[in-house]
Input
Amino acid sequence: MIKKTGVGSPPGAGVQTFLLIILLFAVIILSAGMGYIKIPPLDVVWIVISQITGNHELSGGVNNVFPYVVLEVRLPRILTAAIVGAGLSIAGVIFQGILLNPLADPYTLGVSAGAAFGASIALLFDLAFLGIYSVPLFAFIGAVATLFAVTSLSSSDGRISPINLILSGIIVSAILSAGISFLKYVADEQVSIIIFWLMGSFGSKTWTDVFLTVLFVSIGFLICLFFSRDLNIISSGDRSAASLGIETNKVRMLLLITASLIADVCVSVSGIIGFVGLIVPHLMRFAVGADNRKLVPASALVGAILLLSADTITRAVLPSEIPIGVLTALIGGPFFIYIFKRKRT
Amino acid sequence: MNREMLFEIRNIDFSYGKNKVVNNLSLAIEPGKFYGIVGPNGCGKTTFLDLVVRNREPQSGTIRYRGQDIRAYSGRKLARDISLVPQDFYIKFPFTVREVVLMGRHPYISRFASPSAEDLKIADDAMRKAGVDEFRNKYITELSGGEKQRVVFARALAQNTSVLILDEGTSNMDIRHTLNILDIVADGVKLKKRTVIAVMHNLHLAAAYCDNLIFMRSGRITSEGSVDEVLNEQNIKDAFEVDSRVYFDRYSNSRQVIFKRGRPDEGKNI
Output
């Protein structure tokens, strides 16, 4: 039995968050130093500080290739990985709370499949009229259309039942997966592009990707934090929530859209990365409890740390890079089976 | 308009699709009384409660609460006035008992504030009364059905409302805890002028605790009034289609009802 001290603002929570932030920064700096060209962590710190302050004399003693490697090559990828990890974990917390199911994640609702389908279409027909934004845009349209289809399928007399949501999500996902398979089948030479995109990758990310994800994930994070107490009560059932004065349908819809947007943006910059949104919230419930006011920030931070570490392993530790989506599934899947079995015995 | 009535329910209807569950139902609820709703499974009791707490809206008819249309109240205001112990409570996340009970203070705590000392004290009192104090730091997911129900009851107490609605709120509890909870409920009615509307399956307990009984069948009220007026063999037969005997019981100091085996020769048919 884990003893917990309080509910309001437990004395441990601030310290915990602070330590996680420190850990995240440490992992970012270490990762930026790792790779084909080894850069000492202190040099990384000086490069970043000199860039932020604009005082380039601070990094004067550093090899003059290093700033380019850190700022233009590694940091965009590193930050994108961290933000996507945070975003997928936040989306996971929200979906699990709304669907009243600790095993739900962004994929359960078919949102990711919708995004993947949209992206596959863009890749297949080589739609590039919006330049580098074409694939993200199509992924986004696919995801929003899916969310709309799933929610309208699952609502009756203006109410959305969690069970119907999961069922509709599975049905729509199955149709979309078949659709993606069909697109692959007709794709001919583009098939490798689609397959590689679907497996997920943080390779060749730019500062544009960083800003795009930062913007959406932080707005989403704030909305989720704002409604986290409502989500606590919604996750204890509709009747309870209504009798405690919560506008269940409104809050549920808002959080659903927010979490879907976060998941869309993540999928559109990085492809499908499984298991982060499922495992991180689950893991953090053991550590900080089910209160979403603590769970949302803790999951965001730990998700960022874990996905960044996984990406650094595939980028800098393994002899050749394997797709991050494959790596997270290979590590996350068995790990999840382990905690799932252990919890039940 | 009679201003003394707490609820004035007029000709309300509610259907799920084509299935009419509440049918042209009218009822007036006086403040400060313990109402028991009894009736067979599927007669619309739970749906009726949902309408009363505005969890659902009637498709026709009106519900007035304290002289005003119930739709005029904000959800938060209503939550400070009416609490509900639902029949089904499944929480799959490891909230501690104390966290769940503190949710009852939600309508009183502004969005970014922490619970005040008073909120914590009220929650502590509620936990002690409902007998869940000893497992306040346990996870709700680890408790038995009856224990969970006591936690949800404590949460409703923490909500500190003038109207308490119980939807078979004691169905999973053992008899000792059932009596304890109903004693607390009845004390609230007597001492705090609380109004209670409780769906009850146990006619014996309903007879012993309630001031008024409401018999329902097929979405309608078949009879309603004080226990002495309406607890009789005919009304029980009308609602449940079973035979019974009703008598005044000295031990419980209330009218009581007894049943006999419906088919005494059943054993022969096996």
Q: What stands out?
A: Residues 1-9 of chain A have pLDDT under 50 and may be disordered.
